[in-house]
Design a protein that fits this description.
There is one protein chain. The chain has 182 residues and is α+β, with helices and mostly antiparallel strands. It has one domain (3-166): Gcn5-related N-acetyltransferase (GNAT) (Aminopeptidase), CATH 3.40.630. 26% of the residues lie in helices and 36% in strands. It is built from four helices and ten strands, in the order ββαβαβββαβαβββ. It is globular and about 40 Å long.
Length: 182
């Protein structure tokens, strides 16, 4: 069972990814990251780091009418829930999909004893503003050592964080335990 929410008339259901979702997630990732890949791509160090994390990564998907329209990966590290690879299908952007994925991460984090969500983004993508609208604050900026670009001589990695206090209203979302076992 996942969390369900209606945004602009669209029913968004967030649930843990299932193995049979793999092909749809791969297609969604290609579509949702296409714009970003025009700006940057992960370098070998980033890909190596993600490979090391693979065993501890969890994934949520957001669906609408049975179609996967968003996804995000996460893992718990001490008091943090680390967020990676949030992506939304281009046709479903600005419909609350990312907001629902983040709200579900907040519930999971609270249930697992985390106090904050934390992520990294590349400043040149324009996503700092998107994450700020989702409640994240900038912690630091530095030269990105994990990305490369054909358009920029240097990219800026931005570390952002969102406290879990006051994240989601119990009346609008079910307890994280209904999202499945992680």
């Amino acid at each position: 069972m996942g969390s369900e929410h209606y945004e602009n008339g669209m029913n968004i259901v967030v649930r843990p990814a299932d193995p049979e979702d793999a092909a749809s997630i791969k297609a969604l990732n290609a579509l949702s990251m296409a714009t970003l890949r025009k700006i940057y791509r992960p370098n070998k160090a980033a890909l190596d780091n993600k490979s090391l994390l693979a065993a501890c990564l969890n994934r949520l998907v957001a669906t609408s009418e049975g179609q996967i329209v968003g996804t995000v990966q996460w893992y718990k590290e001490d008091e943090l829930l680390r967020v990676m690879g949030l992506g939304v299908h281009p046709d479903f952007r600005r419909w609350g999909v990312a907001r629902e994925l983040v709200a579900s991460l907040c519930l999971i984090g609270q249930e697992q004893g985390a106090t904050r969500l934390r992520l990294y983004t590349v400043k040149e993508t324009g996503n700092v503003g998107l994450f700020a609208r989702l409640g994240f604050l900038v912690l630091s900026e530095r030269e990105d050592q994990f990305s490369e670009s054909d358009h920029y001589s240097m990219l800026t990695e931005v570390e952002m964080e969102r406290p879990l206090t006051g994240c989601a209203s119990p009346s609008s979302s079910p307890p994280a335990s209904t999202l499945g076992n992680f």
